[in-house]
Amino acid sequence: MNPHLDQLHPYPFERLRQLFAGTTPNPAYRPISLGIGEPKHPTPALIEKALMHAMAGLSSYPSTIGSEPLRAAIASWLERRYGIPPIDPATMVLPVNGSREALFAIAQCVVAAGRGHAHGGALVMSPNPFYQIYEGAAYLAGAEPYYVNSEPGRNFAPDFASVPDAVWPRVQLLYVCSPGNPTGAVLGLDDWEQLFALSDRHGFVIAADECYSEIYCGATPPLGALEAAHQLGRSRGAHPYANLVVFSSLSKRSNVPGMRSGFVAGDPQVLKKFLLYRTYSGGAMSPPVQAASIAAWNDEHHVQENRALYREKFRLITPLLQQVMDVELPDAGFYLWADVRRTGLSDLDFASRLYAEYNVTVLPGSYLAREACGVNPGRDRIRMALVAGVDEGLDAANRIVEFCKRLA
């Protein structure tokens, strides 16, 4: 067996099941889960219709690179959304079966574990807290994860300036999640300028996870990595978007997590190698899903309606929770990242007792982070995914408020 499998940590939701083992939640309340970031809004009818009308495509083998119309639809969406110059759908866009498997696979493609630095082996850097796929991908690529803590003073953006100079030469892949999971933090242009300069100096690839980019409360959409690169003069020339690839998905944007449809876009040199890798390892997207994805990427009306629902939930729920815990609106995304120290409980005790007494599930923040520089930046925090409907979300929030007031 691959010895690197022994390095993998249990997934946060497996740890949550273990935390709740033997607990019977209060039967007076119906269960509400704010634990898993699984969108619950209805799937748009236009996507369902396109999927059903393309069923004849099941009789054909799909190509790994995807259809030309799908790649063109993705490229057009990127150009509209981020105001970037036209990109080549043939060399700079690759459809994938959800961003999760692609985020994992990019490490297997990029990392050369035997090409470590003189002072140590290959590193894969990620924010802390983080999406656990980044860590697993690092281990199974034969690299070592390096965690960069998110700082409350930076609105929970990772503090890359805190990384010692001696670390950067060992980095072969940097995962960036903006908007962040679970913090909702969005990197600014200065952050990207710093990261691009470091990538130029040390040659590492940047994998920008942007799956939450279309859910935001303010008037201005979150800055994207390709957008930042264009503004900094990196979108043209012989090597456009050098060492930068972005990952996005329809799961959150269009409420189709079960469709498993996303894409990778950016540096054509990286994508050429990634396509070669995926012809051996990656499953091609089915033709009906490709047809439904084209319909989704070409329509913004359903995205605006979806965003309005999340804004309404944040508007109603956040002030309620602020009565009993320290929590603020995120830059973007659909999570609330709350400090529960005011309750006198740890994040584990808070989640366990809330589940037992009020049948509401939240995720302990310490499950989403690792100890780095002497601290676990998720400790004493909980992540709440506002994915349920407005009424159910309000019900959960009122139960949490009652629970915290009873503690006091």
Q: List SSEs in N-to-C order.
A: HEHHHEHEHEEEHEHEHEHHHEHEEEH
Question: Widest sheet: strand order?
Answer: 2-9-8-7-6-3-4-5
- Proportion of strand residues: 5-15%
Whole-number mean pLDDT = 96
Tally of DSSP helical segments: 14
Radius of gyration: 21 Å
Question: How many strand segments?
Answer: 13
End-to-end span in angstroms? 51 Å
Overall geometry: globular
Helix content: 25-40%
Q: Would you tell me the structural class of the helices and strands?
A: alpha/beta
Give the low-confidence spans: none
Oligomeric state of the chains present here: single chain
Tell me the major beta sheet: 8 strands, mixed
What does this structure look like?
With 408 residues, this protein is an alpha/beta fold. 39% of the residues lie in helices and 14% in strands. The chain is built from 14 helices and 13 strands. It has helices at 12-20, 45-53, 68-82, 89-92, 99-110, 132-140, 189-202, 225-231, 250-254, 268-281, 287-297, 301-322, 347-358, 390-407, and strands at 32-33, 93-96, 123-128, 144-151, 157-158, 171-177, 205-209, 244-249, 262-266, 335-339, 360-361, 363-364, 381-385. The strands form three sheets. It has an eight-stranded mixed beta sheet, sandwiched between helices. Strand 6 (171-177), helix 7 and strand 7 (205-209) form a beta-alpha-beta unit. The longest helix is centred in the last third of the chain and has 22 residues, at 301-322. The protein is globular, with a radius of gyration of 21 Å. The chain starts with 11 loop residues before the first helix and ends with a helix. The mean pLDDT is 96.
